[in-house]
Amino acid sequence: MNDITMKLNADELITMALREDISSEDVSTNAVMPEAKAGEVELICKQDGIICGMDVYERVFKILDDSTVVEKYVKDGDEVKKGQLMAKVKGDIRVLLSGERVALNYLQRMSGIATYTHEVASLLEGSKTVLLDTRKTTPNMRIFEKYAVKCGGGQNHRYNLSDGVLLKDNHIGAAGSITKAIQMAKEYAPFVRKIEIETETLEQVKEAADAGADIIMLDNMDVATMQEAVKIINGRAKTECSGNVTKENIKNIIDSGVDYVSSGALTHSSPILDISMKNLHAV
User: Which residues touch 121 (CB under 8 Å, ≥6 apart)?
Assistant: First the structure.
């Protein structure tokens, strides 16, 4: 993340996380470290993976004390190995102790998403299908989690509800039909917005293509049905496969011929990457 993105979008969220963890004071730290003392601690990776969130990790300590120095030996997107020294953090020991958990929470979560995304994206190598994330993100963590997807080799779907038109089953129900929903979206949305619509049957696919959808989502279809849907669409719209996509079943989708595959699992089901801060000592 660049400095502008960090200041405009991330700083407030990081500060909220720090306030959640330190509502009035860090009692444990203040008990053993009543006065400022310079110290250093090491950031060590405890399992193989893709690192992501190093700038966010650093920002946690900088918000607590701008004089803190983080000496980084890896950058976002790098492959890391178990036991690898990734950084050293130098500053007031009270800051190192009080910021530790929040900094690690961000780094572990973002690195876990990047690692899982990398594993899934590697299964699509050699195909035309592009891996996308979804809006199934942790509240107040979307900017970090979607960034982690990109670090892992995936691409971002729309960022939020203001970012694009995606008409799902309940939107169709509210409008009355697929054709009506698309017509209403074309009349309302700016012409620069693409219109995507969710379909569950081949009949709906044909209706969506005939109505002029830009992107047609094939929701929870088997491979044979998706292949037939791609034939029906015949290049009139981009295609996206969605519905319970994980690294265990994504290989089955490659032969369907879809342009995109979206997976909520990238952000809602990836395990954290185990990382710790060790060997704190005064300097």
Answer: 131, 152, 153, 154
